């Protein structure tokens, strides 16, 4: 039976969320913009979805708009906010370990006349607050810092970052795609203006994301057309996926504490098992300041890509980094920013868990990893002897 430890890449859709999406596709398929009864019913589904997503974020439902992905939500937050704020200044501040859907829009703006400061992080992946403060000035219009990192799980100090808003009056955006349903919405500072999320990271269908926007914050759209989603995201809403997102958000909210405790225990068991059974490993995830679902581990003298495919043959699925770039050759920009050497980066595997995983799966993964690593290292030693 397959063991899926790559839940930071995507998650299995919960049965309830899948059933809801299927129901909408078959019988609730009206266009929310239509004036007739089926359109009204569809509009009610949208309202319910806004309420459930907002509840999980501990924000008001009026601020929720739906997008096609977390990537689109990040692009809208960054590109849409600087368009309206450019009269104030042209400086953006972000972190070196952000997701590509944040870094690439920033690089695009940099090529088009904006100044972008990329703040370094420490060994744990925490943003350097001293450098951040030094980068702030009266021209700063946007700060974009993720709530939790997608490769190592580090939670960023958003409260400290938000504390500078009164003095510098910048828009604060956080990419919460990895943090949603792992960090309570109440723990995200009220000063945050924009929050990006994604459905398929929390057991909802792919093809739906969202952006929470603070009341009275002006954004410019980056997609133009029929004016759906308050004119900020034109295009008929993907109601089946949105309805599934609604159900998954409700489920995550209702079983939050129990689910998180289980995932945390699973991760601790995985860490302890690997440390006890496999020599020469390095835990790259700072356990005390990270979301509970991610464990990033370096296996010395082992190529992570080879280990990944060996585990795959046993029906075990893990990652070498972000799934958005793991199919490309190249080192992890996150681990590099954290100061890891190339050899440590080459041997890094990301295990990411969900509430659907089990203790038996953890035991199996530890055993399979141990056998594979021993085999690789023995083979490497034989090659050196020759």
Q: Could you give a short description of this structure?
A:
With about 375 residues, the protein is α/β, with parallel strands linked by helices.
Written description of the protein model:
The chain is of the alpha/beta class. It folds into 2 domains: 132 residues, Aspartate Aminotransferase, domain 1 (Alpha-Beta Complex); 240 residues, Aspartate Aminotransferase, domain 2. It has 13 helices and 12 strands. A 7-stranded mixed sheet has the order 2-8-7-6-5-3-4, sandwiched between helices. Strands 9-10-12 form a 3-stranded antiparallel sheet. A two-stranded parallel ribbon has the order 1-11. Helix 4 links the parallel strand 3 and strand 4. Helix 3 runs parallel beside helix 4 and helix 9 runs parallel beside helix 13. The longest helix is centred in the last third of the chain and has 27 residues. The C terminus is likely disordered.
Tally of helical segments: 13
* Strand line-up in the sheet with most strands: 2-8-7-6-5-3-4
Which class best fits the helix and strand makeup? Answer: alpha/beta
Mean pLDDT: 94
Largest sheet: 7 strands, mixed
- In the CATH hierarchy, the third-tier topology of the largest domain is known as Aspartate Aminotransferase, domain 2
N/C terminus separation: 39 Å
Radius of gyration: 22 Å
Walk me through the topology.
Layout: E1 3-4, H1 15-27, H2 37-57, E2 64-67, H3 70-85, E3 91-95, H4 100-111, E4 115-119, H5 129-135, E5 140-144, H6 158-162, H7 165-168, E6 171-175, E7 194-198, E8 209-213, H8 239-254, H9 256-277, E9 281-283, E10 294-299, H10 304-313, E11 316-317, H11 333-337, H12 342-346, E12 348-352, H13 359-385
Parallel strand pairs: 1-11, 3-4, 3-5, 5-6, 6-7
Antiparallel strand pairs: 2-8, 7-8, 9-10, 10-12
């Amino acid at each position: 039976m397959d063991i899926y430890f790559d839940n930071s890449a995507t998650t299995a859709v919960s049965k309830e969320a899948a059933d809801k999406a299927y129901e909408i596709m078959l019988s609730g398929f009206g266009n929310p913009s239509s004036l007739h009864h089926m359109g009204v019913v569809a509009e009610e589904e949208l309202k319910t979805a806004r309420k459930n997503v907002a509840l999980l974020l501990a924000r008001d439902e009026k601020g929720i708009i739906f997008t096609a992905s977390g990537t689109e939500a990040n692009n809208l937050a960054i590109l849409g906010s600087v368009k309206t704020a450019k009269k104030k200044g042209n400086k953006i501040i972000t972190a070196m370990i952000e997701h590509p859907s944040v870094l690439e829009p920033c690089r695009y703006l940099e090529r088009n006349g904006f100044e972008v400061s990329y703040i370094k992080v420490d060994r744990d992946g925490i943003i350097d607050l001293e450098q951040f403060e030094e980068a702030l000035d009266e021209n700063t219009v946007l700060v974009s810092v993720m709530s939790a990192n997608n490769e190592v799980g580090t939670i960023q100090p958003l409260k400290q970052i938000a504390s500078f808003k009164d003095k510098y009056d910048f828009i604060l955006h956080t990419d919460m795609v990895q943090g949603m349903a792992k960090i309570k919405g109440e723990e995200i500072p009220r000063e945050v203006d924009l929050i990006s999320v994604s459905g398929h990271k929390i057991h909802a269908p792919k093809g739906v994301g969202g952006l929470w926007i603070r009341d009275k914050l002006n954004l410019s759209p980056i997609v133009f057309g029929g004016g759906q989603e308050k004119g900020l995201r034109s295009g008929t809403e993907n109601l089946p996926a949105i309805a599934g997102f609604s159900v998954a958000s409700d489920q995550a909210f209702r079983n939050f504490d129990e689910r998180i405790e289980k995932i945390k225990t699973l991760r601790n068991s995985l860490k302890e098992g690997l440390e006890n059974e496999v020599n020469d490993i390095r835990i790259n995830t700072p356990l005390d300041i990270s979301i509970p679902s991610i464990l990033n581990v370096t296996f010395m003298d082992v190529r992570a890509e080879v280990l990944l495919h060996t585990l795959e043959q046993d029906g075990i699925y893990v990652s070498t980094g972000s799934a958005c770039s793991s199919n490309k050759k190249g080192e992890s920009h996150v681990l590099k920013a954290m100061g890891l050497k190339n050899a440590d980066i080459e041997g890094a595997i990301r295990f990411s868990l969900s509430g659907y995983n089990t203790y038996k799966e953890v035991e199996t993964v530890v055993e399979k990893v141990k056998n594979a690593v021993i085999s690789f290292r023995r083979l490497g030693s034989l090659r050196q002897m020759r």
